Amino acid sequence: MAKLMTHEARSTAASRKKSSPASAKSGSSSSVASAQFLQHYQAAVQLVQQGKFEKALAALEKLLPTAPFELIERCRMYITTCRRQIESKGLTFQTPEERYDYAVSRLNEGYFDEASEELQAILDEYPTADYAYYGLALIDSITGRIQSCLDNLSKAIEINPKNRQQARVDNDFQNMVDDPRFTELLYPEIP
Questions:
Q1: CA separation for the pair 147, 137 (Å, rounded)
Q2: Segment 110-131 mean pLDDT
Q3: Which of 14-18, 65-69, 151-155 is most confident?
Q4: Burial grade of 164 (CB within 10 A; 0-12, 13-18, 19 or more)
Q5: Which residues contact 115 (CB under 8 A, 6 or more apart)?
Q6: CA distances from 91 to 49, 53, 62, 94 (A)
Q7: DSSP class of 65
Q8: Which of 17, 20, 161, 174 is found 20 to 30 A from 143 (Cα to Cα)?
Q9: Coil vs helix vs strand at 51
């Protein structure tokens, strides 16, 4: 019986030795795959940062099915960003009012940078578009850029004095109500 146990012990030890390198290989192949994924992921993020949205989108969509759990949401976020950027490049506007409507939709969805870009594009083409200055002032107020808000609102009022009345009742300027310069701008008749 002692020989049988020794033989069984040897078999168990031999099988452990055989499985041990295999599990080590699978562990190292897993870490190699993880390192390769991270390398491809970082390359895709770099494409996003370089503004190469089409290439980044293709790379990220290819990576998503094999993404580790902790990176799935980041991949999805970058995919959404790429799609949005690709869509916005394809937009054409017949009038500045159409561009303004699009900017307001971006503002309402919280995409302040995109809204600002669209409003600035209006001003590049139509420097007296008071509504674009007003929109920029709103974004500046919401995002806490006080001096820029005052400058843009001042230009909007200078071009169209009716903007003063609108700003007095606009809730988007709530961040500005405690600033005396804002009060002076909206109520110049009060000494």
A1: 10
A2: 93
A3: 151-155
A4: middle
A5: 103, 104, 106, 107, 135, 139
A6: 21, 15, 26, 10
A7: G
A8: 161
A9: coil
Chain length of the chain: 191
Mean pLDDT of the chain: 83
CB-based contact 56:82 (threshold 8 Å):
yes
* Integer angstrom CA distances of residue 74 from 28, 60, 61, 64: 25, 10, 12, 10
Any idea what DSSP says for residue 94?
Answer: S
Architecture of domain 93-186: Alpha Horseshoe (1.25)
Answer whether 100's CB lies under 8 Å from 135's CB.
yes
Domain boundaries defined on the chain: 28-90, 93-186
C-alpha 111/C-alpha 105 separation (Å) is 9
Q: How far apart are the first and last CA of the chain?
A: 110
pLDDT computed for residue 129 by the predictor: 96
Query: According to DSSP H, which parts of 50-95 are helical?
Result: 53-63, 69-89
Amino acid identity at 53: F
Among 108, 185, 175, 114, which Cα is nearest to 146's?
A: 175
What is the spatial distance between Cα 138 and Cα 145, in angstroms, rounded to a whole number?
Answer: 10
